[in-house]
Design a protein that fits this description.
With 139 residues, this protein is of the alpha+beta class. It has 3 helices and 4 strands, in the order αββαββα. This is Large ribosomal subunit protein uL5.
Length: 139
C-alpha cells in the first residue's frame, strides 16, 4: 500500500512537471539506502527535466513574466543564489504559480528547484546576463 501511494504521488508530481516544462520528466532514483528516510537504493525519489533550445527559452520567458510575479509576497529574487560559476538556483514553494497547473486539479501543493545554467564564468557575469533578460532581482 505505501509503495503504491508513493508511486501515485511521484506520478502526479511528474505529470505537473511535464505540464510546466513541456517534456516528459526523468524519474530519479536513490543512489544509497537511507534508513532514516525509509528509502532503499534504486527507489524512485523524484523527477527532473533538462530544458534546452526553444523549450528552454519558452520556459524562461514564462518564468520571468508570468510565474515569478504570481509568487505570494513577492519582493524580488535574491541576487545571492549564484554558485560561484555564474549559475543561478532558486526554489519555488508552490507549483501553482505556473499557469499550466489547474488549481482545482492539484492533489498536493509541491515545491520545485530551478537551476539556470549560464555560460558566464563568474557570478557578476551571470548576474549581468540575467539582469539583461529583466530577471526580477531584489533591489
Amino acid at each position: 500500500m505505501k509503495r503504491s501511494l508513493t508511486k501515485k504521488l511521484l506520478d502526479n508530481a511528474a505529470a505537473d512537471l511535464a505540464a510546466i516544462s513541456g517534456q516528459k520528466p526523468l524519474i530519479t532514483k536513490a543512489r544509497k539506502s537511507v534508513a532514516g528516510f525509509k528509502i532503499r537504493q534504486g527507489y524512485p525519489i523524484g523527477c527532473k527535466v533538462t530544458l534546452r533550445g526553444e523549450r528552454m527559452w519558452e520556459f524562461f520567458e514564462r518564468l520571468i513574466t508570468i510565474a515569478v510575479p504570481r509568487i505570494r509576497d513577492f519582493r524580488g529574487l535574491s541576487a545571492k543564489s549564484f554558485d560561484g560559476r555564474g549559475n543561478y538556483s532558486m526554489g519555488v514553494r508552490e507549483q501553482i504559480i505556473f499557469p499550466e497547473i489547474d488549481y482545482d486539479k492539484v492533489d498536493r501543493v509541491r515545491g520545485l528547484d530551478i537551476t539556470i545554467t549560464t555560460t558566464a564564468k563568474s557570478d557578476e557575469e551571470g548576474r549581468a546576463l540575467l539582469a539583461a533578460f529583466d530577471f526580477p532581482f531584489r533591489k
